[in-house]
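Q: Okay, next protein. This is Probable malate:quinone oxidoreductase from Microbacterium aerolatum. I've checked the sequence twice, so it should be correct. Can you predict the 3D structure?
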Amino acid sequence: MTESVDVVLIGGGIMSATLGTLLHELQPDWKIVAFERLSDVAQESSNPWNNAGTGHAALCELNYMPQTDGPLDPAKAISINEQFQQSRQFWSSLVEKGVLDAPSTFINATPHMTFVRGEKDVAYLKDRYEVLKKEPLFEGIQFSEDSRVINQWAPLLMQKRRKGEPFAATRVPAGTDVDFGALTHQLFDHLQDAGTQVLTNHEVRSLKKQKDGSWNIKYRNALGHTPGRLNAKFVFVGAGGWALKLLQRSGIPEIKGYGVFPIGGQFLKTTNPAVVSQHKAKVYSQASVGAPPMSVPHLDTRVVDGEASLLFGPFATFSPKFLKNGSILDIVSQVRTHNLWPMLRVAFANPDLITYLLGELTKTHGKKVDSLRAFMPTAKDEDWTLIQAGQRAQVMKKDPKKGGVLQFGTEVVSAADGSIAGLLGASPGASTAVPIMLQLLKSCFPEQYGAWEPTLRDLIPTYGQKLNEDPAAADESMSATADALNIAK
């Protein structure tokens, strides 16, 4: 007889961990099973070396507030920051409840900076600063064109900088560095302690909807190929790029027209104490022409397992795999009659992206360090090693006007009856896992959601509010989570 459970989570990343934790807090009587095809959770995009770990709050990322011919619009930056505040509140509550370990095991205070060169970008950055300094969620943002001030903020940016070169920087002391691998492990550890089955080395092979709206799931042990089956009332597919493949196998009509374009990445990394000790910040700049937003260059402090290092990148790579541990046939096996035209239209409409990728693929180690020297003029080739980051599966989908568009965000695709949902896309991803999963709960569990709201307000005190519209509430929330997480406000 097939075992029946309430919820199945497919994929052992931060999204599944967040959703599982929320559901356990809301419905502790529900039976949850999680599947991960690798030997441990947090081995793909949630792994700390497979992402830049920025705690995306739009404090330094220029692509959330792009330069246009008209006035700068802070709406997207404010929205991302609002979402990150929800994540901070949720993590703070879990620390207080003992679900998460000491905050320093997964989040550390790290100022967020933006550094630009050239008169045009300096003028843009100053305009951006003038707009954001008026917004409550960006309180404390600083701007300078003075080399002495920037040298105090991040000495490696200024050493041997060419005289007469226009440059400017902004700095927000309240930025963070988040180890999403550690966070994912801690959430899954708690779920296991609470009775959730976390089946690693298990791969879901098929999803078939039943007449009662539930899902029959066939899986196998990735080591011994032992088959198994399960019935679930609700399924979440948080399997990175493979989410597309599994949603296609489910047969839901909502996935029609979707495809994904995989982009890999590499980072230069140093653990040289003499270098690492001179830089404590995440410093972003402008993207190259044609580069996707996820490839904006940045020089980041990382803290993983208590050890600080610096990463610079990313440098785009190409692999047909949808996951770092995927199949070389992934990019071909996604093709269906309903998504072929949108994908072709994306290819025709993005020649700059193709040119950018080809340029990135031809860069030698020395050329990559040359790119770093635009940030850090004193960088030495021998101090930096190249590491392979994770795969990002960018969403391609139908568009009524263009035929197909390439999307650089995250998108939840769910069945009309809410019995199955999956997450496609990349950045800002992990940093906004909590609001993304809250929206999924609201969409997929409309009958239960009203009864859940009091618990959600306990976990996220400003749930349902727009903090940026209430300066006092914004200040109170940021101060409270800063104290709980032991970070700057």
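A: Here is a summary of the prediction. Residues 54 and 353 are 24 Å apart (CA to CA). The radius of gyration is 22 Å.
Q: Noted. On to the next one.
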